[in-house]
Amino acid sequence: MDPAGGCPHAANARLLAQGAVASVVLPGEVEGMAVLGHDALKEFLAHPDVAKSAAHFAALQAGQIPEGWPLKTFATVQGMTTADGADHKRLRSLMSRAFTPRRIEALRPRIEELTSGLLDNLARAAEAGDGVADLRTHFALPLPMGVICELLGVDEEHHARLHHLSNQIVATDIGPEQSLAANREMVEVLGQVAAARAENPGDDLTSALIAARDDDGGRLSPPELIGTLMLMIIAGHETTLNLITNAVRALCTHRDQFDLIISGKASWADAVEETLRWDSPVSFFPFRYPTRDLTFDGTVIPQGTPVLAGYSAAGRDAGAFGPDADRFRVDRDRTNRHLSLGHGAHYCLGAPLARMEATTALEQLFTRFPDLDLAVQETELPRHASFVGNSVQRLPVRLS
């Protein structure tokens, strides 16, 4: 895997042509595997003998993974993404209270209000920049970051720092010292957030998690609290940030598909779903581990192997989505669902929120700025320095 990331689709197509499962070399010469084919990935994600706990990561348990390994946080952070069985059920049940359909729907007016205000900021940034503004900086980032931080009760003073640290943690091209420093500081900042909410509880998820911990005598341990907050901050804004960025980029470079939405032949929700499939916000997500040797599509994945879930590859698998799987089509038949939000017990808990944020963002953005277009050629856009996140680092747009 290229630690510098970049656009994954050409490499994915080459790997898929060879099979649904591939052997990969992770940073630090760590041997792993990736499941790329849609059907194989769907089976893998729901397989009862595939675990999330790093207790099943053979190389880690053998002491072969050094401190500062750039992907170590994905394996060792304490939270529901690294828990199995009863622990996973306990942690997920605590979080699910904040993501009920009723509570998500109650957020809609606030999301619409926040979106409208950010569009004002985008217009001002463009006015100051000769008609050009970075949509990622002024719109796609502060929307999901603002929503998830309000949900968690995180003060605005922490937003910019938490985004920077999130970027460091999901990066795959940084050195051990940077990785350790980013994780240390993230724990410190989230510790400050938890302490503030413990002293002054509010109507937010962090306060609720602390109350659950205290009332139930340690039901949520301090490391689990910090790990859960870290998961929520990173997953709650990085993925939606990429989703909005990728959707705007796709619509600007596929005007025929944009016209289908404007004419009412497709919806903004269709654009969100097609972006999730065609240009998944997460390219390869770490990790899962077979608890015994398993075979998928004729390839054996040995017990204890760290496995990447290849969402960006699965989304363009012609075996699942037809010969035009590499085309962006908002009117595509959605009988066969994409896997970009997961599958099985670890399906993304925040999926309804991400969909609401992205749909609201696209509708308001293009309603207010119907002539919005990229200000540079798409090939000039710098990509993420990670094979985990899949997007560009900036998105300069001209509003009219």
From TrEMBL:
One Pfam family matching this protein: p450
Organism: Streptomyces mesophilus
Keyword Iron listed: yes
Protein's name according to its UniProt entry: Cytochrome P450
Annotated CDD domains: CYP107-like
SUPFAM superfamilies membership: Cytochrome P450 (SSF48264)
Record keywords, A-Z: Heme, Iron, Metal-binding, Monooxygenase, Oxidoreductase
Family annotation (InterPro entries): Cyt_P450, Cyt_P450_B, Cyt_P450_sf
Family of the protein in this entry: Belongs to the cytochrome P450 family.
Lineage: Bacteria, Bacillati, Actinomycetota, Actinomycetes, Kitasatosporales
Molecular function (Gene Ontology), one example: heme binding
